[in-house]
Amino acid sequence: MISADNTAELLITPPLENGDRLTRTEFERRYHAMPHLKKAELIEGVVYVASPVRAKTHGKPHSRIMTWLGTYETATPGVETLDNTTVLLDADNEPQPDALLRIEQGGQSRITEDDYVEGAPELIVEIAASSASYDLHEKLKVYRRNQVQEYLVWRVYDRQFDWFRLNQGEYLQLAPNSYDVICSHVFPGLWLAKSALLSGDLAQVLATLQQGLSTPEHQSFVDKLSSEHQN
User: Fold this and answer.
1) Relative to the CA of 183, which of 3, 68, 87, 154 has its CA 20 to 30 Å away?
2) How does pLDDT run across 211-231, given as a tens digit for each residue?
């Protein structure tokens, strides 16, 4: 329920509208005045307000990604998975990625006093409709410029999954290995069975992830994170 105070603020604060060109400060002011609004983003100074979320073409893929990343987090103390969290990137960009994975100590981002992510998480995932989505255009450029190390886009209608890795300022698309598995370069042990994910076989996705979690590389990463936390 919107309180009387919030109603009064809405009367003097214009609502966020798709296509508005705002500073980040003004974007945040309007967003805070609309507590009923679940998702809005500022990308290159332009406002994008999310449409209602469909069950099978967004909700279900999103759920599978969160299960996959959450399982990795459980086995990897020192990393953090976040769902639909605002990220303060720069003066013109305040996205709200579908999912992200960050290194808690010694990573690229931090949690601010008012509980937002500031700086580029190491890995971001977006659920997109198709290659025409702004996730593969404007957002990709923003994430690349701000040094998001790995950017994953699930194109639901295209039945494709893109995994980009930052290399010398450019995103290179990672290809699956001979077992049709994509392996993270930033998060050792984060393995994805691409075809299983696209076909809805979550059990196989998690089984493949478990193989990655059993590797010496993952254990070395866990040991490194533990050492950094102690320091």
Assistant:
1) 87
2) 999 999 999 999 999 987 776
Q: What is the pLDDT of residues 188-205, one digit of tens each?
A: 999 999 999 999 999 999
pLDDT at 3 over 80: no
Residues in contact with 16: Cβ distance below 8 Å, sequence separation at least 6, in sequence order: 27, 30, 31, 34, 37, 40, 47, 49
Residue 184, φ and ψ in degrees, nearest 5: -65, 145
Q: How far apart are CA 213 and CA 44, in angstroms?
A: 37
| Residue 189, token pair as written in the block | 């042990």
Cα(25)–Cα(159) distance, rounded to whole angstroms? 37
123-128 and 99-103 strand pairing: antiparallel
Block residue for tokens 């971001």? 124
Predicted confidence band of residue 129 (pLDDT cuts 50, 70, 90): confident
Task: Label the pairing between strands 79-83 and 40-43.
Answer: unpaired
CA-wise closest residue to 96 among 127, 136, 66, 132: 127
Strands 160-167, 117-118: pairing kind: unpaired
The predicted pLDDT at position 6 comes to 52
What is the helix (H) or strand (E) element at residue 203, kind and residue range?
A: helix 202-213
Answer whether 192's CB lies under 8 Å from 182's CB: yes
Contact criterion met (CB below 8 Å) for 65 and 192? no
